[in-house]
Automatic annotation (TrEMBL):
SUPFAM superfamilies: ABC transporter transmembrane region (SSF90123), P-loop containing nucleoside triphosphate hydrolases (SSF52540). Residues 10-271 form the ABC transmembrane type-1 domain. Gene3D superfamilies: ABC transporter type 1, transmembrane domain, P-loop containing nucleotide triphosphate hydrolases. It is found in: Cell membrane. Keywords: ATP-binding, Membrane, Nucleotide-binding, Transmembrane, Transmembrane helix. This is Thiol reductant ABC exporter subunit CydC. Residues 350-588 form the ABC transporter domain. It comes from Nonomuraea rosea. InterPro entries: AAA+_ATPase, ABC1_TM_dom, ABC1_TM_sf, ABC_CydC/D, ABC_transporter-like_ATP-bd, ABC_transporter-like_CS, P-loop_NTPase, Type_1_exporter. Residues 334-368 are annotated as: Disordered. Pfam families: ABC_tran. Its main location: membrane. The chain crosses the membrane at residues 9-34, 40-57, 117-142, 148-169, 229-250. It is a multi-pass membrane protein.
Amino acid sequence: MNRRMGTRLLWAVLAGAAADLAGLGLIAAAAWLITRAAEQPPLAALSVAIVATRAFATSKGVFRYAERLTGHDVALRAQAGTRERLYQALIPPQQPRHGGADLLSRMVDDTEAVQDLLVRCLLPAAAAAVAGLAAVVIGLTVLPVTALVLTAGLVLAGVLLPAGTAAAARRWSARIAPARAALAARVADLVHGSADLAAYGADDEALAKALAADEALAALERRQARVHAAALAGGTLVQGLTVAAIVLLAQSAGASSVGTAVLALTSLVAFEPVLPLAAAGERLAGITAALRRLREVRSATPVIAEPAAPAPVPSGPLTVEIDNLVVRHSPRPAAAGTFATPGTSTAPGTQATPAAEGTPGTPAQDGGRAAVDGVSLRLGPGQRVAIVGPSGAGKSTLLAALMRLVEPESGGIRVNGVDLRDLAADDVRTLMTGLTQDPYIFRASLRDNLRLAGPEADDEALRKAVHDARLGGWVERTGWDAELGEDGKTVSGGQLQRLALARALLYDPPVLLLDEPAEALDEETADRLMADLLDVTRDRTTLLVTHRLKGLETVDEIVVLDEGRVVQRGTHDELVAAAGYYRDLWESEVLTRR
Ligand SMILES: Nc1ncnc2c1ncn2[C@@H]1O[C@H](COP(=O)(O)OP(=O)(O)OP(=O)(O)O)[C@@H](O)[C@H]1O
């Protein structure tokens, strides 16, 4: 927390304490006024108390307003700062330790814990401490022994009880979290698997399981609520007993009726800011868990080591040389914090639970083998190289290494003689980037979806990119301002890939990387897309990962990968002439076209 935030927090604490003190003063002055008035003194003897009562009543409201304003201001700023730091921590590529839904829950729910920590725990505790201290001082001046009793009561209700509720909350959450996780997994099954459940008549059984999980959770929550209510009642009981003891002590010490009333009412009011601390203690347990989860995300180490002094970005026509490159992924993360059981998806926004953390992860690669294992290749200016190979051969990993998203284990990549490790990762991606395997279409207009790759691009440049991606007709029909659905749900597979291609063409990197642009498209659409793509990339330095071989006669070199290694390389004609993976794939492609 910086100094300005510290000052703001101090103002909030002071305003809260002032509001509680004004409440205390109000009650003390009013108690004195009422009991003294009963003795029918001259009016002048009451005038100071009358003015004080009015002043305390008015200032209490003003101070409370100021506390809410400054307290929420500082809490919301702290929350925004936490979110910003979280986003910053997520920008450098890192080993994905958290699933999408889990990360979303951390960004939304857990960052709210920062707000709660300040507004519900720290500020009320500080204000309660000041008000309690003031009440003890009043007790000390009127009848010292009552100050002792009041201190004991306040410590019990304001320190021991909250510590107890915090410990109980931790224990309960350890029991409730798995039950909530089980229910969320059942609900996710019901929602995402409803069609399959209905098709196989398994919906009643799935519903019964979800209801049973719901009942188990409700039973635990009912028991937790009873403990919670008992804790709150315990606080009120301590308050009542303390006040009764103070009245008895005052009477046995022969205190005046005015003194007794002041002591009793100030003690009563001193508990007002203290009693909510039991609930704050309960919330604190959740808050510390949330802050721990946020620290985990922020402490994730980036997979890429940035150079201390990045080299200047190479310019002019680029030559990329990959030399004996070895890339090994670290083990895939556990399904940390998600509710999903294997094979189920997680409802977005669901809360991460400690219980679900630590599920055994999927091993990265069979026997820890390298995803890319000694690959060398050269891509000169204007050349096109295609990478072909079965699923899991390491094609996408190779592109990831070129985009500096993964760190090589050995070997290296040089651009115009400069090692990629000497360049800033962002600079590398200005040189080499393109169409990723899973292009994402944002819930924004078509124009904005394209502008992602060229915020400064004018209409002419946008039109050229969609024209080159052979998307002009569709864009004319749909309109530039048409809203596209999240994840491209409102466009067809072919349009989505072409939009992503238009984006890559608009960005116009010196080296264009294309990862399976025709993936998941039907035969005809894929053929058309590949033909257009090979046409538009003519004379562009391009590395193309593909499963489709039609049209590859036009590229300069084809590299066949298998299990991370280069098993064949050459032109289309050379590879078709030799026995091996490429010829087998080509023959099966030809057969399916007949
Ligand atoms: N992030 C990752 N963490 C751990 N292992 C990974 C990761 N990404 C890929 N792998 C593993 O590395 C190997 C190569 O994967 P890669 O995605 O590069 O293959 P690919 O040839 O692109 O496959 P496909 O054609 O199916 O996309 C596979 O065994 C895969 O399981």
